Amino acid sequence: MRTLYKMLAILTVLFAISFTAMKLIKVGGDSIGEEIVNLWISERAPYSNKDFEINSFNMVLEQAVSLTAFLFVVVGAIIRMEWRVGLAILGIVAVTFTAIVPPEALVNKSIEWNLILFLIGSMTLAGLLRELGVFRYLAVNIVKVTRGSSALLLSLTLLLSFITAAVLDEVTSIVYSVMLVFELSSIMNIDPRPLLILTVIATNTGSLALPIGNPIGVYLFFKAGMPILSYIKYSMPLAILCFAILLLLVLFMERGLVNAVSRRLSEKSGKIEAFIHHYYIGLSENAIARLRYGLLMLLGFIVMVALNDNIALLLEKAFSQNVEPHSLLAFVPYIFIALSIAAIRIEDVPKYLDKSVEWPSLMFFICLFILSYSLTYSGVMAKLAYVLSRSASLILSVMILSSTLLSAILDNLSVVIAFTPIATFMNRIGLVNDLIYFSLLYGGVLGGNYTPIGSTANIVALSIAEKRGVKITWSSWLKKSLIIASAQVIAAIAWLYTCLALGI
After folding, report:
1. Which of 5, 59, 131, 221 has the smallest number of Cβ neighbours within 10 A?
2. For residue 377, which of 38, 44, 18 has the smallest C-alpha distance?
3. Nearest to 470 by CA among 204, 171, 255, 194
4. What is the DSSP letter of 146?
5. What pTM was computed for the model?
6. Residue pLDDT, tens place only, 169-189
7. Which residue ranges make up each domain of the chain?
8. Contact 426, 36 (CB under 8 A)
């Protein structure tokens, strides 16, 4: 009962703050204000025949309710992460049955079904690749290649996390990276916590490289409708730069960890040899064939994602049919799921679909899309876009710093989903170009490195660690992350303005 009273008190405070803010913010009648209002009206017009006055009392009330619902879900998730799906469902019920947003608008406009289909497919494919032994093989070979060199062992461990996050997704990557860290820590008899924190940071950094690496990247890819080559041009170089910063800082700042690993490598060389030998003699001919097939599928998936835009163009010419690249990408994982039937039993596909897909997370994403769209529909985002337009010359810095700071303490996907409509408004009226979306991506991903709750990968890693009796405190995390994450964010701002200055 005390929890219920506490949540009601929070709800009341959030509504008071939301109503006051929406009442105070008024969209002016200048040219920018008119353009923003016209865009907002065009969003509402197909679903409502009401008079549209964004500053009216009725609209302020709708804006306050939709903003309260969104903030309530975010604050509730901070208090207890386990509540987030239930609170998100309460939130969408509130905006639907208060008639703030017509249900048909929520179904037709709010949910990025391309994203949902892609996530289901890529998570299932990751489960199949795990069954074929792909990730275990990569981990063992890191140990094999780096025998005797602590710097090389740390570098390749972090590099594996970086690469798998880029080409699969951060959640899949972190599961296997954490398992590798515990395996290495057990062999070398060292404290796993420092390496675990650094591995999570490497995972988040790698997820910046390609849109498929992070739910934020996938969301912005589909929402903004940008070609995948834009990510290769704007995100991949920055991700590589940020990883180089991470490695340099680790090798210079973490001399204690490097020295501890070096001592253990020399002391435990026999045990490490036995570990590698045991893995290889345990591989049957059938296991080797399945492993090769899995590696081939992983390579094919990466290549097909990279060439997705070109494939869409070829299909369009071959069949004289319009093929939208973003919609095509949503189905790419299913090609490789179908191909996997050559290595697994067809009746087992539902099992991998059930075990590998994070269904609660997908439900949370869907609810967030709906709640975010209610902010756009009611005019909250139009008002915030108008406020930010007052500092148009600094908007990229404002967006990256805001998303960085908020992503450090909130779920970073929630932050980016909330900010994207603002970016869209400003992009459509010509105040900024597509770099505004990348400012959100950089801030959301790199800001998640600051704290243990900054991203999904962080939370998953800590959950696995706690199940093994390893507790990571905020202070131990911040000692590692503050300098690294700050250096990465500074690099991101510099890269953003370099791209802007050079017009690339």
Report:
1. 5
2. 44
3. 194
4. T
5. 0.74
6. 787 677 778 777 877 777 677
7. 115-207+256-356
8. no
